[in-house]
Amino acid sequence: MVNTTYQVQGMTCGHCVSAVSTEVGAIAGVRDVQVDLAAGRVTVSSDQPLETAVVRAAVDEAGYDLVDA
Ligand SMILES: [Cu+2]
Predict the structure, then answer these.
(1) How would you list the strands of the sheet with 65-67, edge to edge?
(2) Which positions of the chain have pLDDT values less than 50?
(3) For residue 37, how far is its CA from the centre of ligand 1 (angstroms)?
């Protein structure tokens, strides 16, 4: 299991959290998504390391922006 933390911009409430969790959670191989709303941090647990571009696309689909590390 791999845990990766991403910084996501624009999340303001529980709806944002669930939108991001749903989209990122739908990526193949993702087992769990933990969102720290106050910190704008999204921690993804997956079977294999994820392509950042794939995570970025999912976050974008949810309506938010992945911040470059
Ligand atoms: Cu919201």
Answers:
(1) 30-36, 41-46, 2-9, 65-67
(2) none
(3) 10
